[in-house]
């Protein structure tokens, strides 16, 4: 794979453990032990992925992610013991792509890293289908420019959130099974969809302000999957 992954965590032992886990994937793991050092290294080496802790002295992971987003659209995996819903919401709001709780499972870390690197490789190279855009009086989605506007204002979506929305829009009006969403958005190496997919749907609905203006765009078909319901066909 020959990718660069930057680990920003004040625990040197954790960084060495991640390095050992990812080495068989032909990944070059680089370490930084503070937020400021991590930002400096990210600027210098242009990593393909950042694995980031929340609780660090000086500058916490939320502030680091905000600064990273000012540099580039680097995939960010938050690896932290702080994974309460409020922490995760704050993380997604500043641009985190995925969360993994400490202590973590080795295979799950590998799957999430593989998925995030896969998504970064395929940005701008998504499959085409019958639907490449969606427009109504409130929501505007253009899959060519990858711009999503709500009420005329561009909304910020993480790469994973955008990929999830794009998959639903490309299959507009059809139920997209959990497994298909998981494979198209995260890659086939990803594991159980129940918690991760549900969480991303929840935050995507919040950003689209689902139901706030009298319409729900993302519907759930219990036990099967999700589907995008256009407003102008209601």
Please explain how this structure is put together:
The protein is of the alpha/beta class and 234 residues long. It has 2 domains: 3-121, 3-Layer(aba) Sandwich (Rossmann fold); 133-233, Winged helix-like DNA-binding domain superfamily/Winged helix DNA-binding domain (Arc Repressor Mutant, subunit A, Orthogonal Bundle), CATH 1.10.10.10. Helices cover 41% and strands 21% of the residues. Helix 2 (35-45) runs parallel beside helix 3 (61-71) and helix 6 (159-170) crosses helix 8 (193-208). The radius of gyration is 18 Å and the shape is globular.
Topology:
Elements: E1 3-8, H1 12-22, E2 27-32, H2 35-45, E3 49-52, H3 61-71, E4 76-80, H4 85-94, E5 98-101, H5 106-121, E6 133-135, E7 139-142, E8 147-150, E9 153-154, H6 159-170, E10 176-177, H7 178-185, H8 193-208, E11 218-221, E12 225-228
Helix pairs in contact: 2-3, 6-8
Feature tags:
single chain, 234 residues, alpha/beta, Rossmann fold, Arc Repressor Mutant, subunit A, 2 domains, 4-stranded antiparallel β-sheet, 12 strands, 41% helix, globular
Name the overall outline: globular
* Spatial order of the strands forming the largest sheet: 2-1-3-4-5
Please describe the biggest sheet, giving its number of strands, its sense, and whether it closes into a barrel: 5 strands, parallel
- What is the string of helix and strand elements? EHEHEHEHEHEEEEHEHHEE
* Model regions low in confidence, pLDDT < 50 over at least 5 residues: 123-129
């Amino acid at each position: 794979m020959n990718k660069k992954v930057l680990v920003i965590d004040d625990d040197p032992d954790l960084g060495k453990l991640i390095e050992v886990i990812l080495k068989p994937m032909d990944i070059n793991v680089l370490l930084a032990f503070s937020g400021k050092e991590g930002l400096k290294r990210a600027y210098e080496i242009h990593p393909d992925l950042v694995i980031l802790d929340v609780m660090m002295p000086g500058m916490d992971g939320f502030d680091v992610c905000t600064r990273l987003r000012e540099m580039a659209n680097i995939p960010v995996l938050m690896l932290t013991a702080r994974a309460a819903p409020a922490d995760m919401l704050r993380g997604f709001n500043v641009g985190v792509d995925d969360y993994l709780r400490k202590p973590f499972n080795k295979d799950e870390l590998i799957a999430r890293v593989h998925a995030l690197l896969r998504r970064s490789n395929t940005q701008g190279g998504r499959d085409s289908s019958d639907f490449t855009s969606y427009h109504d009086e409130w929501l505007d989605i253009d899959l060519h420019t990858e711009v999503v506007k709500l009420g005329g204002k561009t909304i910020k979506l993480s790469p994973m959130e955008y990929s999830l929305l794009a998959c639903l829009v490309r299959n507009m009006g059809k139920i997209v099974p959990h497994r298909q969403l998981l494979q198209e958005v995260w890659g086939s190496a990803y594991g159980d969809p129940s918690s991760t997919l549900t969480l991303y749907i929840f935050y995507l609905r919040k950003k689209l302000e689902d139901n706030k203006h009298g319409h729900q765009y993302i519907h759930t078909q219990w036990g099967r999957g999700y589907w995008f319901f256009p407003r102008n066909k209601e």
